[in-house]
Specification:
single chain; alpha/beta; TIM Barrel; 2 domains; 9-stranded mixed beta sheet; 3-stranded antiparallel beta sheet; 14 helices; 15 strands; 40% helix
Length: 373
């Protein structure tokens, strides 16, 4: 067995208007700590949580957030070193850092490589300043190319950018320019996610007040098909609904999620999955640290998956992937439902597998609902 690790870094300089992730700015923290003060103390707590995890070999580690690149490389490196000494890393272990383009320098990037990172993912989101303004993103779009070029020069072998489409006020031409700008970068991987407006965010309040209007479903569909076509034309193949990569640069950490492998989430609010059991930690970093420093578990709750849930999730996750679903895993009534989708061009059959076509990917959730409930 293997065990991947997700390491949550729950700190940001500023909260983006669309974000409902478990992140905190220094002013939001009850203890009023600055990032400089909090870093060392926080990593100490993460290392205490690590003691509870299984000791299986580690094929991937992913530092997400928040903004992991705000923390000094040596602090993050303490986690990598501890996992390596305790569990052991596979020879080709993929170790990813999520980064804000504005938060990296040549020296920091070189140091991140020195402590063990070999893959970096920049939050680009858009190349259009007016779109970034609606999203409340703090970075200058020109800094993305600068950051990517510095990362490549420093020696990162795999570089990704994250994009968001469907922002209020974003046109199809805006989106085309963003994707084209991303593909002109020296990168190996693109993630493109439809904007989801979460209740309680600044963006949701602006939409509720009528200050902003969400794009319609047809435009969202056109945006998805456009990024797929542009990526494929530049040698980036889709391997999961929202992800495209050059050969050999797929994100193996995320693939572990989609294949229901074992992973342990370190940090407040982090989720884990080990041998059919899911569990998740308390959300606030102050409470998380307090519990670990007095010897208590940070786990808030858990659930053991039934065989039916495991089968349903295998279908839900598997159909998202380029390799699709094995026909032998499906029941006759499920195959009957899929036959209609095949006739209408949403799926195709190849090598005893069910594969989504590009237009089928647009309604993947609907197909999953119909064959699993």
């Amino acid at each position: 067995m293997t065990l991947s690790f997700y390491v949550h870094i729950p700190y940001c300089i500023k909260r983006c208007g669309y974000c409902d992730f478990n992140t905190y700015t220094p002013t939001e923290l009850q203890d009023g700590a600055t990032l400089e003060i909090v870093s060392n103390d926080y990593i100490d707590a993460v290392l205490k949580e690590l003691d509870a995890a299984p000791t299986d070999l580690v094929p991937t580690i992913f530092f997400g957030g928040g903004t992991p690149s705000l923390l000094p490389a040596d602090d993050l490196g303490r986690v990598i070193t501890a996992i390596s000494k305790r569990n052991g890393l596979s020879d080709d272990c993929e170790i990813t850092l999520e980064a804000n383009p504005d938060s990296v320098t040549k020296e920091r990037l070189e140091r991140y490589l020195a402590v063990g990172f070999n893959r970096i993912s920049f939050g680009m989101q858009s190349a259009k300043p007016h779109v970034l303004a609606v999203l409340d993103r703090t970075h200058n779009p020109d800094n993305v190319k600068r950051a990517v070029d510095m990362a490549r020069a420093a020696g990162f072998k795999s570089i990704s950018v994250d994009l968001i489409y469907g922002t209020p006020g974003e046109s199809l031409d805006d989106w085309q320019e963003t994707v084209a700008a991303a593909l002109d970068l020296d990168i190996d991987h693109i993630s493109a996610y439809a904007l989801i407006v979460e209740t309680g965010t600044k963006l949701a309040a602006q939409i509720k007040r009528g200050e902003l209007t969400m794009p319609d479903d047809d435009l969202m569909a056109d945006m998805y098909l456009m990024v797929d076509q542009l990526c494929e034309a530049k040698g980036f193949s889709w391997y999961e609904l929202s992800n495209w990569a050059k050969p050999g640069h797929e994100c193996r950490h995320n693939i572990a999620y989609w294949e229901n492998k074992n992973w342990w989430g370190l940090g407040p609010g982090a989720h884990s999955h080990v041998d059919g059991k899911r569990f998740w930690n308390v959300k606030h970093p102050t409470l998380y640290k307090e519990k670990l420093h007095i010897g208590q578990t940070p786990i808030l709750d858990s659930e053991t998956l039934t065989s039916e849930q495991i089968a349903r999730e295998s279908i839900m996750l598997g159909i998202r992937m380029r390799d699709g679903l094995q026909i032998s895993l499906l029941e006759p009534h499920q195959l009957e439902i899929l036959a209609t989708y095949r006739e209408n061009g949403y799926i195709e059959l190849a090598d005893d597998r069910v594969l989504l076509t590009p237009v089928g990917r647009l309604i993947a959730d609907r197909i999953v609902r119909e064959i699993t409930f």
